[in-house]
Amino acid sequence: MQLKKKLSIVWKKRNAVSVAISNVILASAVITISFVVLFWAQSKSSAYNQQYSEAMNSDIAKLKERLVFEYVSYNKGNLTVYLLNCGTIDNITIKTVYVYFSNNGTLVKVFSSPSLKYFNGAPIADQDLDKGEEGCFTLSSFSLITGASYSVRVVTGRGSTFDYTFNP
Amino acid sequence: MTTHLTLRKIFRKLIDNPKAFSSVIGTIFMVLVALVLSASVFLWTLSQNTEYFQAVKEKNQLEVDRLNERLTAENVTYTGSRGVISVEVDVRNECPLFVNLTTLWVFDVNIGNYGVNDTLNICLKPGEKLSLRGFKAIKIKINGSDPSHIFNSWFITSRGNAVPLKENIIVAQVAEGIGSIAMDIKQFKYYIVPNVNDGTDIGTPYYSFTIDGTKYTLLCITLINLDPSHQPINLTKDSYVWAVTPFAETLKSDIWPIRKVIDNKLAKFDFQILEYGKPTQVYFGPTQASRSRGNVVPLFILLFGKIGNADYGQNIPFIAIRVT
User: Fold this and answer.
1) What is the pLDDT of residue B257?
2) Is the Cβ of A86 closer than 8 Å to some Cβ of chain B?
3) Given an 8 Å threshold on Cβ–Cβ distance, is B25 in contact with A27?
4) Which residues in A lie closer than 8 A to residue B116 (C-beta atoms)?
5) Percent of chain A at pLDDT above 70?
6) Residue A91 burial (CB < 10 Å; 0-12/13-18/19+)?
7) Which of A30, A119, A145 sits opposite B25 (nearest CB)?
8) pLDDT of residue A17
9) Cβ–Cβ below 8 Å for A64 and B32
10) Cβ contact B198:B218 at 8 Å
C-alpha cells in the first residue's frame, strides 16, 4: 500500500521520474556487470582449479613411482640396466638415461627413450613398466673403465629420477 | 535495543534514498562474488591437498614396510652341472609382513657372467621358514658357469629389497674367531708385470704358489667382508702382504703394498672398499721378492682400514709360497 502511494507520488511529481529511471538503469547496469564479473571470476577460478588439479595429480603420480635397480651389467661396451617397478602406479616410461662418473659427476653419455625388454630379451609391447613388472634396457656403443665408479640416472616420463652407482 | 533501532533507521534511510540503491546492490554482489570464489577455491584446494597428503601417507607406509622387511637367506650351496646352477638355500621371513620373492640373481665371479630367474613368486608368511632344497632348488642358466666357481647371489622382493644369499659361516672363521675379513685361499693368484708404473697391463693370472723372485709379481687375494655389523670395510694404503724368510740369521723380508687395478691396468691406490658378503679381489705389489729367493715363506696379509668410523686391523697368515 505504501509502495503504491509512493509510486503514485512519483508518477504525479513528474520531475522525479528521470531520477527513478536513472536509478533503475544504474541498478540494472550494476546487476549486469556484477553477473559478468561473477561468471568471469568463476571461469578464472575454475581454470586455476583445473591447473592446480593437474599439477597436484602429476605430483601424486610422481610420488607413487618407484623403480628399483636389480642389477647393472657392463660387458663389451654394452650396459644393461635391470629394473623393477615396485611403486603403486602403472605405465612408468623411461624418458632419459644419464651415465656419469659418480665421484665428480662428469657426464659420460645421455640416452633418450631406450627400448624396454623383458629379462628374457623379448621386447615389452607398451614400452612401459606396470606395477610389479620387471624390465631391462641396454645402452650400447660406449666404453667404461673397469674398476672406476659410475652412476646411472633414470628419468621417467613423469619426471621422477632414480640413481644407481656401480663398478663395471 | 538502541543498536536495533539505529540499524532500522539506517535501513529506512537506505530504502527512502534511492540514490544509494545501486551501490548497495553492487556491494552485495561484490561480497557475494568474493565469498563464492574464495569458498570454492578454498574447498577445492583443501580437497586436492587431502588427496596429496593421502598419497604421501601411502608412500610413507610403503617406505616403512620396505624398511621393515627383514629376510635371511642362509646355508646356500651351489650344485648342478656346467651351465645350469642349482641354488639351494634356507629362507626365513623375520618381519611381521608378508614377503614376496620375485627374482633370484646369481653372479659367477670366476667368469664374470650372471643368470636370473624372475619367475619365483615365493610368498613367505611372517616368521615362516622355507628350505629350498632338492626338487625345490632354484635352477639358473649361466653360460660357462660351474658349481665349483665363486658366486654372488641375491633375491629381489616385490617391495624392491635385495636379500643376499649367505653361505654357512662358521663363527671360528670370522669375527670373534679370526676377524671380520675372510680369505678364499683357492682363489690366490698372481701376475707377472714388466714394471710398477701406473697404466701397465697386468696380463693373465697364474694360479700357483710358486713365484719367480727375479720378476715383478702382483699378488691377487680374494677377500670377503663378513663383519657381523654388515658395514663395509675401507682398506687404506697401510695394508700390505709381508713375507718373512724363516731360519735366516738376519731378518729377510719382502713387502707387497696394496695396489689398485683398473681395467686390467695398474693404477694409483686411493682406497679399497670391501662390501659385506661380496668377494672382492684385492691386489698387492708389484714387488720383486728377491730377499725371499730359494725359500718357502709365509705370507702375512696385513689389512688396515676402517669399519664405520672405527679403526680396523687384521692379519691373515694362511698362505705360503715358494720363491725361486
Assistant:
1) 93
2) yes
3) yes
4) 70-71, 82, 119
5) 93
6) middle
7) A30
8) 65
9) no
10) no
Report yes or no: A49 at the B interface, CB cutoff 8 Å: yes
* Chain A CB contacts of B103 below 8 Å: 70, 84, 119, 134
Query: What are the CA-CA distances from residue B308 to residues A107, A160, A165, B280, B312 (Å)?
Result: 30, 31, 20, 18, 9
The residues spanned by each domain of chain A are: 2-63, 65-166
Domains and CATH numbers, chain B: 71-164 (2.60.40.10), 171-323 (2.60.40)
CA-to-CA separations, B9 to A4, B15, B27, B82, in angstroms, rounded? 22, 10, 20, 105
A41 → closest Cβ in B37, B114, B156? B37
Q: Answer for the pair A78, A121: CB distance below 8 angstroms, yes or no.
A: no
B156/A147 CB distance under 8 A = no
Residues of chain B with Cβ-Cβ distance to A88 below 8 Å are: 58-59, 62
CA distance A42 to chain B (A): 7
CATH, range A65-166? 2.60.40.10
Q: Which of B75, B71, B131, B137 is nearest to B100 (CA)?
A: B71
**3-class secondary-structure state, position B79:** strand
Find the mean pLDDT for residues A43-71: 89
Q: What is the mean pLDDT of residues A19-40?
A: 82
C-alpha cell recorded at residue B253: 723380508
Instruction: Provide the pLDDT confidence category of residue B244 given band limits of 50, 70 and 90.
Output: confident
Distance of CA B274 to the CA centre of its chain: 10
This model of the complex carries an ipTM of 0.75
d(CA A130, CA A84) in angstroms, rounded, equals 9
Q: Output B171 or A145, whichever has higher pLDDT.
A: A145
Q: Do B103 and A31 touch (CB under 8 A)?
A: no
* SS3 letters across B220-239: EEEEEECCCCCCCEEECCCC
**Confidence check: pLDDT of B217 > 90:** yes
Residue-wise pLDDT for A86-142, tens only, equals 998 999 999 999 999 988 888 988 999 999 999 888 999 999 999 999 999 999 877
- How far apart (Å, rounded) are the C-alpha atoms in residues A62 and A160? 6
Kindly indicate the confidence band of residue B172, based on its pLDDT and cuts at 50, 70 and 90.
very low
Radius of gyration of chain B (CA): 35
Q: How far is A94 from chain B (nearest CA, A)?
A: 18
